[in-house]
Design goal:
With 67 residues, this protein is mainly alpha-helical. It has a domain of 36 residues. The longest helix has 16 residues. It starts with 33 loop residues before the first helix and ends with a helix.
């Protein structure tokens, strides 16, 4: 039995697949700097959120400044 034309792609999670917000790690993004990483770390400490991201930001800044 074949599906009608209007039923295609209506499975769970199939709608909007690949149409969400794009990652900021695109060609137009800027490199993480130590100044920006410090601001992220400060905000994470003040809010208690994104504790794992602050270490990744610092690591990225260190890597970018070495290259």
């Amino acid at each position: 039995m074949s599906r009608g034309h209007g039923e295609r792609g209506r499975g769970k999670g199939s709608r909007n697949r690949g149409q969400g917000k794009r990652s900021r790690s695109s060609k137009t993004s800027t490199r993480m700097t130590s100044e920006r990483a410090r601001a992220i770390q400060s905000h994470a400490d003040k809010t208690g959120r994104n504790q794992d991201f602050k270490s990744r930001a610092m690591s990225a800044a260190d890597t970018n400044e070495k290259s």
